[in-house]
Amino acid sequence: MFEPRKYAEWLHSEVFQPVIVVIGTAQAKTRVKEVNGLSLAELFAPFGGHSQYGISVSVQSLERQITIDNLRVHFTDADAALQLSALQADQLAAWTVESSALENASRQKALEPPSPWYEQWRSALFRSLRWSDHEGLDQPTAAMLVVMSKEAEPAMLLEQLLHASNMPPLCTQGILDPVPSRVAVLLHDVSDPESPNEDELTQKLTDLKTRFAPNQVYVLQINRGSAEVEPEIEELFRNFSSNRHAPPPPPAPNEGAACAASPGSRLSSDDVKSVAQVVAEVVVRSAVPWMEKQLQQLEAQISQTRKGFRNQLKYLWRKPREANERGEVVQEDSGAYPLHSVEGQMRLAGDISFHLRDYEVALGYYRNVVSDFKQDRSWKHAAGAYEMWGLCTYITNGARSERNRCMESAYEHYLQASSSRLAMRAVVLHQAMVSDLKDAALRLMKVNGDLADSNLRNALILEQAGQLYYTCAAPRKGAFHLVLAGHTYNKLGFKRLALFSYQAVVDLYLGKGWFHISDHFHFTMARQANRLGLKDESLSHFLELLNSFADADKKIGIQAERENTYIEEFLYVIKDWVHKRCGEGETKTIDLQIPRIQPEVRVRLLDDVECSREAMSPKNGDEVAAAPWDALGEKMLGITTEDRLELNWRQRSDPRIFDTLRRVTTVGAEVVVEVTLTNPMRVKWEMAAVRLRGQLQSTDGVAEEVVFASQDVTLAPLESRTIKLMAVPQKEGLLQIQSVTWNLFDCRQVICDRPFQLKGRRLRNTLEQRASKSGVYSGDLRLELKVRSKKPRLSAQLQGLQLIELEGVTRVPRLLQGELHKCSLVISTETDCPLAFLHVAASYPGVALDAPEGYEGLEVDFREEGLRLHGTFPRELRVPVLVCINASGLHSVRLLVLAEALGDGPKSEQRQWITLEEQIRVEPALSMTARPSPSYAADGRILFSCHLENRAAEALQVQRVLCYSGSSGSSQLPFQASSQGGEIVIQPGQNAQLLYTLQWPCEQIPAAQSTRSRLLQANRAAHLALSAASKRSSRREKEPLQMAPPVDLVVQWRQGDRAGEACALQVPLERPEAPPCPLDLHLLAPEVAEMEADLMVPVTVRIRNASLAGSVSFYFVAESTADIAWIGCERSEIISLPPNTSHSATLHAYFAQPGVYNLNRFRLFVVGMPSGSVPASEQAPLAFAVPFERLLHVTAGAEKIRGSMKHVEHERRLDIL
Fold first, then answer.
1. Which residues, listed in sequence order, are joined to residue 824 by a DSSP beta bridge?
2. Distance of alpha carbon 423 from alpha carbon 431, whole angstroms
3. Domain named TPPC8 first Ig-like: which ranges (predicted)?
């Protein structure tokens, strides 16, 4: 849209221009066409103000002087001054639009109005409507009569050309003035050998000036250049020769040899200047003066007819042009107004004034004549007058309502006159004015409904309306109309324009979930581009279509047949594209996002655990967690940061570790990358030669390509599968795995390359990082591996754990609680890399490692966490492992193997960590609890009450019970059973009570170090650590003093060929959690006594020093009551007892009547305590009462009982009576 000033410039440069007719002899036309590739009009056309050769003039329009900076004129051949037919106009429009589409094949802003092909179609529309009989805008202002200098008698030829029959048809029909200004041009071809010499040329020019007006005769010399046309000159003439007429018909088969000359051939820069000078003189001296003079004459004639009171009265009585002189009815728009009619004169005067830029005068003429046309029912003439009226109103900044009314009236009257092309011109001119975009779009849609003939015009209208809707903030409506335009283009065969329409709107539907629409767009654009030969563009649209299926949000249901059609046509385009773009053996890479690659990418090295059996084992909520790998590594030796990160990765598999960790592998070792592929389509997807791609950055800085192993993969519809891709580095360096590639179906020359896009953790340290919408992420180094040759290459596995299979499902090993199970850790090496040491550690205390046997030159160093080996290592090493787990549940047993190679360099790059983890299900078996108690029969003897319970499903045979020192696992204590007997068999669910004695202190029996002893020591250490942790969590302020070391009790059992142990660890020799009183009180007395006269029951009081810290001094007191009296010493003397010794005294109890009595009526008064205990003295003794009951039932005699029963019966009978 143009504002008024720009609008006027556009009208005079493209739509309406003064016309200069070129009339030449046949020889002149032929010579210029053959030599210069131009017609006579095309020879002068570029210099009519359309190029850098502008023409500035000052004109006189009636009483007004007007300066025109760049006057543009239109040159036309007299024999081509005809209006094109509808068919020719459609051919011209189609050819122009198609040519413009080819020139703008890479246009990106297709949503900005107007499109280039719309502008070219608009120009073609204006050209096709020239020489219309209802307007005088194409009135010839000058006629250039051209003859060749070599022709005989040029003066006579010019006189022949002066005849009115040589003028355009509208001039001969009297509609336009047939006598414009005439100019004679003597054309001299310098390159023609038949052309006269300079003297002859001068003589002929003199003769012509004698016969004609001297200032109207020009000589023009051309073809002074070489045979090769200059690019600037060719471009200058090509713009005016390629779009003036409809495309020529194809040449006949026998005419293909002749090749037309290029536009502007043989013309030099001097020739161009000469032509420009002649054109300027013709315009300034002939065309403009003629228009000024003609306007004056027309104004005089119009004034004579219409001005004055008399003429006004005559005009009021003017009859419409409905009947001719014979009385015959004249049909509407049956003829034009001749120039001698006042209506024709007024229209021509208005058009000349418009050319001279005198818009106010032109506006007056159009206003006055439009009423005459309407009165005569000449709708086309009225529409033309309304049209020019609206243009002048807009240029002169008239009222908007006036111009809109005029342009709408012009459109309606053109339709009423059945002139659809002229109606379209009125709409196009109206659209170029500045107006509301929505109103402009609605105007176009009205035209589309009125002129619905489904041709190119309707497609362009829909496209222009869609662009206007989009610009006025109605994108959905705009996109809808653009889609309709593309559909219409497609039906009419304009595939390229349809492609542009779909391309303009496809981005508007992306990201909104309208997958059906976007799929239709991409599929249609792909097919259209392929038919147009745009193979690259067709392929890109197919890739967009197929890649949309990789969108996780695309959950629509598309039939498998439709998806299969997509793939078949995609493969056809791929093969055609390869055939035309690829040479023999050449490959092409495309960006195809199917199948979808999940972001979880795992890299496994040789020593990584592929899959833990924990995933296959049932969970019952009784899992026992294992120690972390890094904690186990810390026990082995001081690890580096790289080692800790490596162990942390195996523990947690946290991708954040790869922010700084770059793992190390061995030369020749397999690097496995696990990738999960998902087929999002409902058809089978085949991939050939799936492999990794990367490079090996060697130590010398040279990047070498790495050849990776390949495999064929076929994914079923909607299938997800994890595949393992392998790489084997063959030299030291930095291995960088970059992408995964494969061949598409059977197209071996087409490679799909999908780079790995791994992101580390999101960084939130700085304000910029936190404020970033897309996020700032750290690097991920999991696909970058350091390859070293001086690194061990070992493999390890635990053999001997039998797996139990139930219903075909692999389960974890099952052991009984405390079962001693022997297995082997097999460590093998694949290289000859010398080792500095080999360290094996176990995370669980129930796993003990033994020294390998039968290997010479191998030193073993037992440590708390395992063992370390030095010396010469064989190819295969078997380390005995003894497993004994004393708690039921699911246990994770971990073995950590560390191998370090000899050599200089970073230790972390010379170490290999092997992590083995087994899930073992432990079923309940034999459990034991032991409670110590002092023996009152012998001093220093401790009784152990061992309670055994069989929780297994089968009977267990108890063999023996062993006692070990709780501080040294290698010292065995003399432990004796209280009763002799054979082995005890405990049935499932049954208990057994065993009593053992231990004389303390005793002599300890040293035992040799064995796997069982180390196993016991490890279990004791774990028990102590657990006890210490529980005591810390309970927050006790003071721990009781414990002088005697505890003991460990071990019960050995057997079940068929399975043997095991049940342990009671850290059993104390003194009372657990001893109270403040260091003395134990024990009363010996009968349970039942018969009441008789002078009954006295003997009671033995035995007091024992339960403290092992030192001697205790005390005395005791027996308290008498009303029911019981003590006969003897009620208060003893002060007694001193050494540790674990006792004192006995016998008293007699006297009872007054039968009953149940508590004999515990004794109180202990401590007057001396061991050092470090609570102080006590005779003046301030510590009084204690031992809180237990010793009951004695005193019964009455038999006779007394029978008498009392008779008395009770007698009383009952009396009550009844």
1. 799, 880
2. 12
3. 662-801
Alpha-carbon 180 to chain mean position: 73
β-sheet bridge partners, residue 848: 882
747-755 vs 588-590, strand pairing mode: parallel
- In terms of Cα–Cα distance, which of 96, 104, 101 is closest to 121? 96
Q: Phi first, then psi: give them for residue 831, nearest 5 degrees.
A: -130, 175
Closest by CA to 136, choosing from 98, 166, 168, 90, is 168
Q: Collapsing DSSP states into helix, strand and coil, what is residue 583?
A: coil
Instruction: Find where tokens 């193997």 sit.
Output: 897
Which residues on neighbouring strands pair with residue 916, listed in sequence order? 895
Cα distance between residue 466 and residue 478, in whole Å: 4
585: exposed, middle or buried (Cβ count in 10 Å: 0-12, 13-18, 19+): exposed
Of 195-199, 205-209, 829-833, 1203-1207, give the lowest mean pLDDT range: 1203-1207
C-beta of residue 263 within 8 angstroms of C-beta of residue 37: yes
C-beta neighbour count of 766 within 10 angstroms: 10
Residue 1170 has pLDDT above 70, yes or no: yes
Distance (Å, whole) CA 639 – CA 645: 10
DSSP 271: H
SS3 1162: strand
- Report, in angstroms and rounded to the nearest whole number, the Rg of the chain calculated over CA atoms: 59
Q: 147 Cβ partners below 8 Å, 6+ apart? A: 24, 25, 28, 154, 157, 158, 161, 184, 185, 186, 187
Rounded distance, CA 287 to CA 282, Å? Answer: 6
Residues 516 and 1164: their CA atoms lie apart, in Å, by 97
CA dist list (Å): 217 to 42, 453, 677, 958: 20, 51, 85, 142
Quick: pLDDT tens for 924-969: 999 888 888 777 667 677 788 888 888 888 999 988 888 887 665 5
pTM: 0.68
- CB atoms < 10 A from the CB of 546, how many? 22
Residue with tokens 């493969």: 571
